[in-house]
Specification:
With about 250 residues, this protein is α+β, with helices and mostly antiparallel strands. It is built from 5 helices and 12 strands. The longest helix is centred in the C-terminal third of the chain and has 27 residues.
Length: about 250
């Protein structure tokens, strides 16, 4: 009995050790400052981002993509960095080479311009942005997640800016919820409608596009041929029913 108890104890210990190890393995913190050697390990692609006094600046069509390890079982996942200006932040959980698989999660259009008070919004001033990426972990079948920073308005200056004043921190945890996360960007209704218009090649305003699409769907069921066929089918069915009834009554 003592031997069996010892064996059972060993098995329980090993099981607990494996559980603790798996939790530890899927919880980690990656931290680096832009332009340092550690950052290089996590850069998937970098196109024209400039060194602005030690910080990264992405103007026009320039951008940077970071690649971080993540498990589908990770409970909490976050990215924190200090950014400003006209930035556009995107996330990808499947294929960074597929343009359509990128999703916008943070966006600021108006740059900080002291000559125009309406542009001095807190979102475009330098601030610590924490992104809660937890809901995307389950989608990371390749055990990777990609984050891209670019310019939200390539037509002018004030491109996306990643400061070197604080480190970029990517973190996963099974026990620590993400604190102080910024609100995720929600695509405006007009932008969604414009994409739908583009798909059906309708060059019009959003309301007309919706009406046109609705009209097309309705007209499919108003074709004369369909009415004639349905009427003929109903007539045949009526005659068959009448014939069956007469046969039954005749008996």
């Amino acid at each position: 009995m003592k031997l069996k108890s010892k064996i059972a104890g060993y098995f329980i210990f090993i099981a607990l050790f494996i559980i603790i190890l798996s939790v530890y393995a899927s919880a980690y913190t990656i931290s680096f400052t832009v332009f340092d050697k550690t950052e290089e390990k996590y850069i998937y692609e970098e196109i024209g981002s400039n060194n602005s006094n030690g910080s990264r600046f992405h103007d026009g069509s320039n951008y940077i993509i970071y690649e971080f390890p993540v498990q589908t079982t990770d409970k909490y996942v976050s990215l924190a960095w200090t950014i400003q200006n006209q930035y556009a932040v995107y996330v990808n959980t499947t294929d960074p080479e597929n343009y359509e698989s990128w999703k916008t999660i943070y966006f600021a259009e108006k740059p900080l311009d002291t000559e125009d008070p309406s542009w001095s919004t807190p979102a475009t001033q330098m601030h610590r942005a924490v992104h809660d990426l937890s809901k995307y972990a389950a989608e990371c079948k390749n055990n990777k997640i990609w984050i891209m920073m670019g310019d939200s308005d390539p037509t002018g200056g004030w491109g996306g800016y990643i400061s070197n004043s604080e480190p970029v921190v990517f973190k996963t945890s099974q026990t620590e919820p993400v604190q102080g996360a910024v609100q995720e960007y929600v695509e405006p209704f007009v932008e969604r409608i414009e994409k739908e218009i583009e798909k059906v090649n309708i060059i019009s305003d959003p309301e007309s596009a919706i009406k046109q699409k609705t009209k097309i769907n309705i007209e499919r069921y108003r074709q004369p041929e369909l009415g004639i066929i349905c009427g003929a089918a109903a007539l045949v069915l009526f005659l068959i029913i009448c014939f069956i009834k007469r046969s039954v009554w005749a008996k």
